[in-house]
Amino acid sequence: MIIFQKVLKMNKDRREFLKVTGLTGMGVFSGNIWELYAQNNDFKGHQFITKELQLNLIGPYGPWANSLYNEKIPSLSFRNDTFSDLNNWRNLTKERMKERMGVLDIGEVPKVTVHQVIRYDGLICEEISYQLPFGRPTKAVVLKPENASGKLPAVLGLHCHGGNKYLGLDKIAKTKDDVPEHVKAHHATYYEGKAWANELAKQGYVVMVHDTFAFGSRRVMLEDVPVERRSGISEFDMTKQSNIDSYNSWASDHESIMAKSLFCAGTSWPAVYFAEDQMALSILSSRSDVDPDRLGCAGLSGGGLRTVMLGGLDPRISCSVCVGFMTTWTDFLLYKSYTHTWMIYVPLLPRELDFPDIMSLRAPLPTMVLNDLEDNLFTLNEMKKADKMLQQVFDKAGASDKYKCSFYPGPHKFDMAMQKEAFEWFDRWLKA
Question: Which CATH number is 176's domain given?
Fold first, then answer.
């Protein structure tokens, strides 16, 4: 009982210290601060720190690094009192964002080749491809209801990362029942067994899904890199699951090389994503069966990241749903960078925009965020902070009803309950 009372007193003292010093929002503190407080409050500071200090990925450098820019509102966030005109702010900030990313102009919309048209599960499925100025041809699939007529609302489905670069569009779309076991496993793990692009198309949408940079048909082939960089892999037959697994392991390690190379080229991974996703959106919007004024995008995880970038920067996206990818730069800096890839980072941007501020560039356009409470890719506290940041912007923009965030039980996923809410959000804003 005496020990319990001492613990209560220490927690009370800690809360009072945070209140008085104004450090409540830091979350992580240097040992020296707590040692000093301990010396003045008659308990052993080191023992207290061991139990109470929230550890971070870069140890004692964490509080310092986080204090540089992340503990105040970044200079270009609309949450700043200095901004009142939404349009002026958006124009200024988008240009700065694109400059930081190293946004690319990849030319005119390419010719699209239709390889096959399949009727499957109530849908018309077009398997297409097109050639961008770099890399192998991009494969894509366009799905729509079998008996549809006229111009339909359309959604660009953005596939996830999932630690699997061998797969691309197959992660969220299919044109037949007989798909490989590793594709079925991916659907089961992240989407409750569904190819969600197909499920959305059945609701009256044209849905396009394309392989993006470094995935699927756009992946870096082992035979295209020097022998000494192939990690000893000599067999490229991808009909064998063991070879697919080996390739995905190699591709994961290769990400740092790709990111460094893109930085050396004066651009970034988000910029390449954005360029390819914009081109896919242009192809989708130019179709005769699509209403270009009713376009949406959505994706889980890496697809959620792409939704943030495309939805934040391209005004053609009337409605967006980001799933399993909304947090703060603090989360990446202190706690969760090891669970993520190089595909996130834009040099210097945190000085000007927190991560949620990128998506806030959409305001007042309809914007949904779906999170998982036990998602180990993020910390719950930072996900909730990100939600508050977005809500603040939409409130200030006079568009409170255009933003919605929901938290679901379970790990990193986009299950059927979440899909239902996402599809209803699209119906509300794209079918009205």
Answer: 3.40.50.1820
**What is d(CA 22, CA 217) in angstroms, rounded to the nearest whole number?**
52
Is the domain of 136 the same as that of 14?
no
- What digits encode the pLDDT tens for the residues 366-387? 999 999 999 999 999 999 999 9
Joined together, the tokens standing for residue 328 give 């703060």
* 62 in any annotated domain: no
Considering the domain boundaries, does residue 77 fall inside one?
A: no
Residue 384 in any domain: the answer is yes
Q: Is the pLDDT of residue 53 over 60?
A: no
Q: Tell me what the mean pLDDT of segment 153-168 comes to.
A: 97
Section 167-181 average pLDDT: 97
pLDDT > 90 fraction of the chain, expressed in percent and rounded: 83
Separation of alpha carbons 140 and 157, rounded Å:
10
One-letter amino acid at 69 equals Y
Number of domains into which the chain is organized: 2
Residue 80 lies in a domain: no
- Do residue 196 and residue 297 come from a single domain? yes
User: Which residues face 372 on adjacent strands?
Assistant: 408
Burial class (CB in 10 A: 0-12, 13-18, 19+), 383: buried
Counting residues of the chain whose pLDDT is more than 70, the rounded percentage is 88
Q: What value does the mean pLDDT take over residues 375-403?
A: 98
Domain encompassing residue 315: 112-430
Same domain? 287 vs 200: yes
Is residue 70 scored above 90 in pLDDT? Answer: yes
* pTM for the structure as a whole: 0.87
